[in-house]
Batch of 3 targets.
Target 1
Amino acid sequence: MDLEKLQAQTEHLIEDVIKQADLKKGQLFVLGLSSSEVNGGVIGQHSSAEIGQVVVKAIYDKLTAIGVHLAVQGCEHLNRALLVERDLAEQKDLEIVSVVPQLNAGGSGQVAAYDLFNDPVEVEHIIAQAGLDIGDTAIGMHVKHVQIPFRPIMRELGGAHVTALKSRPKLIGGPRASYDKVDTFRQG
């Protein structure tokens, strides 16, 4: 796989997702990544540390530049726990769990983030404002309700299917309610 091309494609993809999701400083973004799928294989079968490093660093750099926090979802062997910076976990009172991600238990994305983050910890759950799922890793459980899927500029990264999610507040109040002045409603 051409890693320079993958980096450029990932940067292009995350720039589009940032714009479409209208991410703001301080928000939380979840990434699910199957490097096996990016490399044209089957999820969980042939993880690639190199692909994980390229994809996670490209996304991390773009999100960090605008003050958005990255949470990297692990595979089912870690119950889809998420790797985040310790200061974020403490600030948001997230429950920290004890595990160090490995290539085949956590995945290439978590291993890359573990090396990249300043003080990484695993947490069980988060509620992110948006996310990117590269390779059908099922990130929806970590994006707040109401989730709005949208089509990013690229539908595939390497051989992996790409799905993006943003969110909006729930609409409440029934037929008597008005939503005309709610900015977040217009996002959906």
Target 2
Amino acid sequence: MVEVVEYLKTPPSNESLRKVIGQLGIKPEELVRKGEAIYKERYKGKKLSDDEWIEAMVENPVLIERPIVIKEGKAVLGRPPENVKELLL
């Protein structure tokens, strides 16, 4: 079964975003979409702590890289698509 979460309509909580980042095994800043206008306007060139990056994504969910696919407690970014294939095998 597939559950699609449209996080722009229902943004993740701080806690749920932390969990996903843990499942991805990355630093919060690695999940930030650096091409977004809000990133360029507010965050580009700034050194934020992990907590500050998470809060920035909770407040501005458009900053969250997508898609994220989660299966059995493991997560991958769907870019490139091959990441998803490896998770599903």
Target 3
Amino acid sequence: MGKPKRERVLKENEARAVSHMIRISPQKLNLVAAMIRGKKVSAALADLEFSRKRISETVRKTLESAIANAENNHEMDVDNLVVAEAHVGKALVMKRFSPRARGRVGKILKPFSHLTVVVREVEESA
């Protein structure tokens, strides 16, 4: 009984992790995501560790989760992993209002984002 198993969306040598509802604008998060795209996992973790951006801690956690998924769920070698994709999606925007002069109102937008990190195992070049 039960429902049938879903087809795997990624290739056999890929694993991913997704963080939803991160409290930062997609534009700012994409700056940090672009910093790690295409790099080896060890270099990407080092870059995030020493980055001065506030959101780099959350991106590092998501990358570590993708690495753990690759190692534990798909039996991949951690030393051969590369950040294949790191893309950012737009989530909801909270709207707040602040009183301004002469009875007017100022709109304050508080955006949220989604982050998806895909790691891929590559063969070592001899």
